[in-house]
Q: What sequence folds into this?
C-alpha cells in the first residue's frame, strides 16, 4: 500500500492530482465545521461519557466527507479508464482509493462512537450504520484488489476490482444520503419538491421579524418587546408543558425571565448575542430522532420559529420586564362592538349577508345561486323544528306565490313553540349536561333542569335572563351549577364549585378554564388563582388553592375573570354572589357572552362556527365584523334566540348551496374559508324523529320521560309522537351519537362508524319499527308503485327517478310483501341523502 | 437481548478496544441490538382478554389465602382471615383457596400478583373504583375518559378488520348503578367508533352479528344490493366525496361484511364440541370466556368478560360471603383454567395477555385502608353466631390479587406479598392501576406517552403519562 502511494508521488500526473486532493481535504473540513457550527458546539453538554470519545464521535460528520468525495471521484475517473487500465489517470485513482478507503474505515469507527454517545435511534440510523460499515469494508476490498492488480500485475482481477469499486461508490452514496437524513431530517430533500407528501410549501411566515432582519441597527424598545412576545409564544406553545412552574424537566424553566437565563442542569441555555453557542438553539435544531432534540414530545419547531429564536438571541435576547405582563396568546376583545353596517345592495338586505358580501369581496368569491325550494324547506324544517317537511307541506310551499314566502315560512316554523323547543332541547341538554338519567342522580348528587329548560325554550326566554337563571338559579334551574357530585374524595379540580366555574366559562363564555383549575395554564394567560377566584363565587367558603390536587395553603380572592365586568362582594352569602355574577356577566358590554351564543347558533345551522372550536372564543373568527355585528344586534333585539335564528335562516348566506368537506379535521382549521353551509349529518334525535314521522314511531308514548302536555291546559296535537329528545338515552340513540351527558358537550361527531352501522343494520329497535311500519303500509297502500312514490315523497321530499323506481319496483312488484317493503324502508332511511342535512 | 439498551451506559462500560473490535464486526449480536433501538416498543402481544371479577373479590378467599378458621357459633370475628382451607398450586410454595383447583393447576403458565393496591378514593364505592380501574382516571373528570379497551382500539385498531376491536361481554346496564357503569364503558373523547361492542349475554351473542332475527341470508344480501343500487342512483351522489357520506358507506360495508362473514361464527357457541362447551358452561361468565376464546382465535383485539356487576350480587358480598363465594369460584374456576389451556393449545396464548382482576378486595373487619375511617361499613358482629356473618363483607383497598397469563408475561411467577395477619395488606412490591395499564400497553407495543390533545390539553393513556410498566412481570 505504502509503495503504491510512493509510486503515485513519483509521477507528474500523480502529483498534480495529489495536490488537488490535498487542497480539497483542507477546504472540506472547514466547510463542514462551518455548516455544523450550530449543531456541534465543542463545549460538552453532558457530564457522563469520556470527553475524547465524544469529541472523536463528533468528528464523524467532518471525516465522512473524505470517503464520499474521494471514492466517488475515483469511481468517476475509473469510468474514463475503462478502455485502458493503465491510463495516465491511474496513479491518481490509486491514491484516491487508498485515502478514500482508509478514511471510510476511520469514518465508520467515528460514526459508531457518535451514535453511541449521542444516542441517535431509529430505522434511518440502522440503515446508515450498516451501509456505512459495508462501504468501509468494500473500500478496503477495493484497495486490496487494486493493490493486487497494480503491484502484482494480476490483471485477471481488474473486473473484480472495478465491480467492487462501483459497489463502494453506490454504498457511499446511499450511506451519505441516510446520514444526511439523520442530520437534516428525512424530509430535507423532499420537502422542497412540490407534489411530494413532505412538501411544506412556501414558508408561511407568521412572524413579522423578517422585516426587522435587514436592520443591523439596534432594535427599538417596541420591536424588542414585540419579538420577545413572539419568542415567548413559541416557548409557551412548545416548551411550557415540560419547562415551566408545573413541570421542570432538566431544571429548566422558560416561563420566567430570570429562570430562562439561569438555564438548566447543564448550565445556561441562552447566550445573548451568540445563537451558535446557545444550547437552546442546538437542541431545537437537532434532527427529530435525536434523543436530545427539543421539543421532545411535540412536533419539531418550524423553520420560522427556529429562525425567530436565533434572531432573538443574536439581537441579545431582549426580555423586558414589562413583557412578562404582555399576553402571548391571542386574546379576543371582551367589549361589545357595533361595526358600521355596509350599505344594502340590490340583492342583499339581510345584514348578515352584507358582512358575508364584504368577506366574499375580499376573497374574490362571487355569490352562487341560492338552493331550490325543496332543499330550503328541508333545511329550515330540520334546523328549526327538527322534523322533515311532509309532502303536503312541500306542496303548499311550492304553491305559495308570495315573494317573501321563505321568510314567512321560517316565521311560521319558529312559532311552532313546542316543536321548536323539543328540537333545540337536544342541543341545550348537551351543552348544559342535562339528562333524564346519568351518574349522580342515584345519590342525589345531581339535579335535572328539564322542566325549566323546556319552558325556557318554549316561551323563548330572553337569553340574558336564561343565563341569569342558570347562574343565579331557582330550584328548577339549579342543576347546571350544582354539577355532579360523586361520593368519596375527588380531585380538587373537580369539586362542584370548580365544575361550575369550568362549565359557566365553557358554555357561556367559550373559555377553557380546565387547565387553569389545576395549574397555571399554558394554553392561555389564565392562572390557577384566576380559576379559584372565579370558583369562589360559587362557593360557600373561600376555597384553598390546590395545585395539581395538592393543597398550597393559599387562598384566592373572589372575582370575575375580567375585572371590567365589575366586582363581587366576597363577604356576601353565596346566593348574593351568584346574583352579582349573573348581573355582571349578562351586561351588554360583555360582548364575549353574546358572541359565544351567536357563534354557537351559527355553528348549529351552518355546520361550522364563525369561530372554531366553538368553545375557544379567543380564536380568530373568519369575519370579526359579522360576529360582532350579530352579537350587537342580538343584544339590541332583546336577546331573542328565535330572532337570531330568523336572521340566519332568512339570509342568502344560509341559502347558499351546501359544501362538503373531505377531511373532518379540516372543519376547525384556522385557515378555513367560508363558502356556504357545511353538510351535516342529522342528530340522533333528528334521525329517530324522521323515521318516526315517515314510517312508524320509533319510541312508544310510554317511553316519554318529559311530557310537555302533561297538566297542560291544551291537548297535545294530533301529530304528537314520542320525540327522541323526550326519551331516556338508549343504545340506539347512543350509537347514533347522543352523548352521555356527564360532561358538557357542545358538538356532535358527524362521522359514521361501524358500531352505528351495526345498530342500524341488525339492531332490534330499527328493524322492529320498520317491520311494523311495513305491515301498516301494506294494508294502507297495497300497491308497490304507490308505496315507492309515498316513501320517496315522505322521506326524501321528491319523486323517485325512473332508475330508482325501476330498482325499487323490481323488489316490490305489484303487490309487495311486508318483507319487501321493510327492506325498501331500510335502504331509504340509510341513504346518505336521507341522513344528511344538505 | 434487552431492547432498551442504554447507549451511554453501554459505552461507559466498554473499553475503546472492544469498541474497535465491534466496529470491525466481532460480537455482532450485541452490536445489532444496540443499533436497532426503535422509538416504538416491540409488541409482545396482539390481544387482551380481561376477566373482570366485578364487585370486589377478596384476596384472602381466592388467590392469597391466609390462616383458615372453620365456622362455629361464637367465633371471634377478628380470628377469621380466610373461610376456606387452601391447597397447593403448580407454583412452588403458593397455595390457593379451596374451589380454585383448576386455576391452581395452570399457574405454571402465568404470573400471580399478590400486591395490587387500589386507590384511596375516600369512600369505597364500586362504581368509582371500577371507573378508576377501567380508565386509569378517578371520576369525575373534566372530559369523558376512555376505557382501556377503547384506547387499545384507537391505537391498534382491530386485528381482524371484521371483528370489532373492543368487545365487552356479560354486562347489562339495566341494573342498579347502570348509569355509573355506562360512564366508563365508553370511548369517551376518542369517539364512539372506539367504544365497546356490547354483548350483554353471550348465549345470544350471535344475534348481534348476524342478519336481523327472521331474515334469511339471501334476503339480507338482496337488501344490501338494493341499498347499493339506490345509493348509486341518489342525486346526493352529485355532491361527490364528503366525509359523512364516505364514512356512512364504509361503515355500512363493514357491517355487511361482518354480519356475513365466516368469522361471525365465532359468536356462535353452539358450534363448540359438547365436552368443551360443558367445561365452560358455568353460567354467563363461563360462556363469556368461551366466546372470548373463539373470538381471539378469529382475531379480536380487546375483550372484556365480566362476572357482571350488580349491587350486592356476585362478588359484591355484603353478607353470606362464605356460602356465596363457593358459587362464585365454581363459576370461574373451570372456564378460566380451560381458557388458558385452550389458548395455549392453539398457540394464541403467546400473543394474548389474559388478565383477571377486581376493583378492590374484601376483609371481614377492615374497610378501605388500614387506619382510614370510612363510612357506611357493613355491620359485622364481634362474635359470629350466624353463618351469614361468616365471610369477607367489607371493602378493602390495601391488598388484592391479579392473575396474568400470556403475551410475554413470565410463567410460573409470583409477584408481591401481603401480610399474613390482619390487616392482610400489601407488604412487598405494591402495584397500582397505572402500572397495570402501562404494563398492558407496553406488552402491546403502545408507547408510554401515547396521548391526544383534548380541549387543548394533553390526555395520556395513564394520568400525565406517568404510569410505568412493571418490567419484572415480563419473561
A:
Amino acid at each position: 500500500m505504502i509503495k503504491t502511494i510512493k509510486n503515485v508521488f513519483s509521477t507528474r500526473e500523480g502529483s498534480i492530482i495529489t495536490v488537488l486532493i490535498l487542497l480539497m481535504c483542507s477546504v472540506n473540513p472547514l466547510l463542514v465545521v462551518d455548516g455544523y457550527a450550530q449543531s456541534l458546539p465543542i463545549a460538552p453538554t453532558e457530564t457522563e461519557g469520556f470527553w475524547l470519545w465524544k469529541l472523536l464521535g463528533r468528528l464523524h460528520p467532518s471525516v465522512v466527507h473524505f470517503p464520499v468525495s474521494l471514492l466517488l471521484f475515483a469511481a468517476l475517473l475509473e469510468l474514463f479508464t475503462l478502455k485502458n487500465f493503465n491510463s495516465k489517470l491511474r496513479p491518481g485513482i490509486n491514491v484516491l482509493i487508498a485515502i478514500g478507503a482508509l478514511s471510510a474505515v476511520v469514518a465508520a469507527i467515528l460514526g459508531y462512537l457518535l451514535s453511541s454517545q449521542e444516542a441517535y435511534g431509529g430505522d434511518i440510523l440502522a440503515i446508515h450504520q450498516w451501509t456505512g460499515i459495508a462501504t468501509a469494508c468494500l473500500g478496503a476490498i477495493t484497495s486490496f484488489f487494486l493493490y493486487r492488480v497494480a503491484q502484482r500485475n494480476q490483471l485477471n482481477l481488474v473486473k473484480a476490482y472495478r465491480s467492487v469499486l462501483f459497489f463502494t461508490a453506490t454504498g457511499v452514496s446511499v450511506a451519505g444520503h441516510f446520514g444526511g437524513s439523520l442530520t437534516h431530517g428525512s424530509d430535507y430533500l423532499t420537502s422542497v419538491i412540490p407534489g411530494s407528501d413532505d412538501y411544506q410549501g412556501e414558508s408561511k411566515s407568521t412572524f413579522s421579524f423578517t422585516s426587522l432582519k435587514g436592520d443591523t441597527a439596534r432594535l427599538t424598545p417596541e420591536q424588542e418587546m414585540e419579538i420577545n412576545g413572539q419568542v415567548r409564544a413559541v416557548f409557551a406553545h412548545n416548551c411550557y408543558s415540560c419547562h415551566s412552574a408545573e413541570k421542570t424537566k432538566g431544571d429548566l424553566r422558560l416561563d420566567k425571565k430570570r429562570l430562562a437565563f439561569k438555564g438548566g442542569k447543564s448550565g445556561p441555555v441562552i447566550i445573548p448575542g451568540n445563537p451558535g453557542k446557545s444550547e437552546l438553539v442546538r437542541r431545537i435544531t437537532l434532527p427529530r430522532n435525536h434523543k436530545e432534540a427539543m421539543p421532545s414530545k411535540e412536533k419539531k419547531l418550524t423553520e420560522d420559529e427556529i429562525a425567530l429564536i436565533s434572531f432573538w438571541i443574536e439581537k441579545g435576547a431582549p426580555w423586558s420586564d414589562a413583557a412578562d405582563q404582555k399576553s402571548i396568546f391571542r386574546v379576543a376583545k371582551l367589549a361589545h362592538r357595533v361595526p358600521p353596517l355596509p350599505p344594502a345592495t340590490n340583492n342583499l338586505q339581510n345584514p348578515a349577508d352584507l358582512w358575508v358580501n364584504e368577506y366574499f369581496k375580499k376573497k374574490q368569491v362571487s355569490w352562487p345561486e341560492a338552493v331550490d325550494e325543496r332543499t330550503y324547506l328541508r333545511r329550515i324544517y330540520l334546523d328549526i323544528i327538527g322534523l322533515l317537511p311532509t309532502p303536503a307541506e312541500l306542496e303548499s310551499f311550492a304553491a305559495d306565490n308570495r315573494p317573501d314566502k321563505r321568510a314567512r315560512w321560517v316565521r311560521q316554523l319558529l312559532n311552532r313553540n313546542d316543536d321548536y323547543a323539543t328540537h333545540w332541547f337536544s342541543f341545550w341538554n348537551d351543552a348544559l349536561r342535562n339528562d333524564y338519567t346519568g351518574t349522580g342522580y342515584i345519590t342525589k348528587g345531581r339535579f335535572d333542569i328539564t322542566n325549566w329548560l323546556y319552558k325556557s325554550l318554549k316561551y323563548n326566554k330572553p337569553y340574558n335572563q336564561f343565563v341569569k337563571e342558570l347562574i343565579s338559579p331557582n330550584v328548577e334551574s339549579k342543576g347546571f351549577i350544582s354539577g355532579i357530585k360523586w361520593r368519596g374524595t375527588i380531585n380538587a379540580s373537580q369539586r362542584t364549585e370548580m365544575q361550575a366555574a369550568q362549565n359557566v366559562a365553557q358554555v357561556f363564555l367559550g373559555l377553557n378554564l380546565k387547565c387553569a383549575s389545576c395549574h397555571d395554564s399554558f394554553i392561555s394567560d389564565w392562572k390557577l388563582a384566576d380559576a379559584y377566584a372565579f370558583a369562589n363565587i360559587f362557593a360557600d367558603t373561600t376555597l384553598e388553592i390546590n395545585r395539581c390536587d395538592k393543597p398550597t395553603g393559599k387562598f384566592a380572592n373572589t372575582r370575575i375573570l375580567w375585572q371590567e365586568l365589575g366586582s363581587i362582594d366576597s363577604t356576601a352569602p353565596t346566593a348574593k354572589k351568584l346574583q352579582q355574577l349573573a348581573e355582571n356577566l349578562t351586561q351588554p358590554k360583555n360582548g364575549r357572552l353574546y358572541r359565544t351564543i351567536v357563534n354557537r347558533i351559527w355553528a348549529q345551522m351552518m355546520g361550522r362556527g364563525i369561530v372554531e372550536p366553538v368553545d375557544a372564543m379567543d380564536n380568530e373568527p373568519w369575519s370579526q365584523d359579522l360576529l360582532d355585528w350579530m352579537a350587537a344586534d342580538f343584544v339590541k333585539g332583546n336577546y331573542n334566540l328565535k330572532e337570531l335564528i330568523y336572521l340566519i335562516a332568512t339570509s342568502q348566506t344560509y341559502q347558499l348551496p351546501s359544501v362538503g368537506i373531505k377531511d373532518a379535521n379540516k372543519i376547525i382549521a384556522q385557515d378555513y374559508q367560508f363558502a356556504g353551509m357545511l353538510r351535516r349529518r342529522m342528530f340522533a334525535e333528528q334521525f329517530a324523529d324522521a323515521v318516526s314521522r315517515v314510517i312508524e314511531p320509533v319510541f312508544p308514548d310510554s317511553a316519554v320521560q318529559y311530557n310537555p302536555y302533561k297538566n297542560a291546559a291544551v291537548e297535545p296535537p294530533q301529530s304528537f309522537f314520542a320525540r327522541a329528545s323526550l326519551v331516556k338515552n338508549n343504545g340506539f340513540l347512543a350509537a347514533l351519537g347522543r352523548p352521555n351527558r356527564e360532561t358538557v358537550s357542545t358538538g356532535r361527531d358527524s362521522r359514521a362508524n361501524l358500531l352505528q352501522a351495526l345498530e342500524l343494520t341488525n339492531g332490534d329497535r330499527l328493524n322492529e319499527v320498520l317491520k311494523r311500519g311495513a305491515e301498516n303500509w301494506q294494508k294502507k297502500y297495497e300497491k308497490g308503485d304507490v308505496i315507492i312514490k309515498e316513501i320517496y315523497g315522505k322521506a326524501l321530499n321528491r319523486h323517485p327517478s325512473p332508475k330508482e323506481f325501476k330498482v325499487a319496483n323490481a323488489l316490490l312488484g305489484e303487490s309487495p310483501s311486508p318483507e319487501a317493503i321493510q327492506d325498501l324502508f331500510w335502504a331509504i332511511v340509510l341513504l346518505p341523502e336521507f341522513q344528511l342535512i344538505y | 437481548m434487552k431492547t432498551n439498551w442504554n447507549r451511554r451506559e453501554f459505552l461507559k462500560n466498554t473499553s475503546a478496544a472492544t469498541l474497535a473490535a465491534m466496529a470491525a464486526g466481532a460480537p455482532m449480536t450485541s452490536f445489532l441490538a444496540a443499533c436497532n433501538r426503535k422509538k416504538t416498543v416491540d409488541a409482545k402481544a396482539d390481544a387482551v382478554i380481561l376477566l373482570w371479577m366485578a364487585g370486589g373479590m377478596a384476596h384472602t378467599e381466592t388467590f392469597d389465602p391466609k390462616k383458615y378458621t372453620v365456622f362455629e357459633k361464637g367465633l371471634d370475628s377478628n380470628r377469621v382471615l380466610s373461610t376456606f382451607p387452601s391447597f397447593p398450586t403448580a407454583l412452588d410454595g403458593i397455595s390457593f383457596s379451596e374451589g380454585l383447583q383448576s386455576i391452581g393447576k395452570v399457574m405454571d403458565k402465568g404470573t400471580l400478583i399478590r400486591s395490587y393496591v387500589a386507590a384511596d378514593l375516600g369512600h369505597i364505592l364500586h362504581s368509582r373504583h371500577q371507573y378508576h380501574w377501567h380508565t386509569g382516571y378517578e371520576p369525575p373528570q373534566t372530559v369523558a375518559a376512555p376505557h382501556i379497551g377503547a384506547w387499545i382500539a384507537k391505537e391498534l385498531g382491530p386485528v381482524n378488520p371484521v371483528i370489532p376491536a373492543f368487545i365487552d361481554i356479560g354486562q347489562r346496564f339495566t341494573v342498579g348503578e347502570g348509569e355509573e357503569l355506562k360512564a366508563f364503558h365508553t370511548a369517551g373523547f376518542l369517539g364512539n367508533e372506539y367504544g365497546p361492542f356490547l354483548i350483554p349475554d353471550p348465549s345470544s351473542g350471535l344475534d348481534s352479528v348476524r342478519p336481523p332475527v327472521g331474515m334469511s341470508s339471501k334476503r339480507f344480501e338482496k337488501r344490501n344490493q338494493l341499498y347499493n343500487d339506490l345509493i348509486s342512483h341518489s342525486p346526493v351522489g352529485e355532491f361527490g366525496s364528503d366525509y359523512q357520506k364516505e364514512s356512512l358507506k364504509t361503515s355500512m360495508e363493514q357491517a355487511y361484511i361482518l354480519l356475513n362473514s365466516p368469522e361471525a361464527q365465532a359468536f356462535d357457541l353452539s358450534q363448540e364440541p359438547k365436552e368443551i362447551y360443558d367445561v365452560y358452561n358455568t353460567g354467563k361468565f363461563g360462556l363469556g370466556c368461551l366466546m372470548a376464546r373463539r373470538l381471539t382465535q378469529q382475531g379480536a383485539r380487546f375483550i372484556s368478560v365480566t362476572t357482571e356487576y350488580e349491587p350486592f350480587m356476585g362478588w359484591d358480598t355484603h353478607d353470606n360471603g362464605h356460602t356465596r363465594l363457593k358459587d362464585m369460584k365454581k363459576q370461574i374456576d373451570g372456564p378460566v383454567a380451560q381458557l388458558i389451556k385452550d389458548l395455549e393449545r392453539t398457540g394464541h396464548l403467546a400473543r394474548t395477555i389474559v388478565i383477571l382482576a377486581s376493583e378492590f378486595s374484601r376483609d371481614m373487619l377492615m374497610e378501605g385502608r388500614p387506619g382510614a375511617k370510612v363510612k357506611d361499613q357493613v355491620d359485622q358482629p364481634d362474635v359470629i353466631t350466624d353463618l351469614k356473618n361468616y365471610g369477607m363483607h367489607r371493602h378493602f383497598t390495601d391488598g388484592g390479587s391479579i392473575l396474568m397469563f400470556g403475551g410475554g408475561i413470565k410463567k410460573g411467577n409470583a409477584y408481591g406479598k401481603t401480610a399474613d395477619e390482619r390487616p392482610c395488606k400489601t407488604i412487598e412490591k405494591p402495584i397500582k392501576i397505572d402500572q397495570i395499564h402501562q404494563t398492558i400497553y407496553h406488552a402491546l407495543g403502545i408507547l408510554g406517552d401515547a396521548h391526544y390533545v383534548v380541549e387543548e390539553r394533553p390526555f395520556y393513556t395513564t394520568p400525565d403519562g406517568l404510569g410505568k410498566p412493571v418490567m419484572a412481570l415480563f419473561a
Q: What stands out?
A: Strands of chain A lie at 544-547, 550-555, 680-681, 836-837.
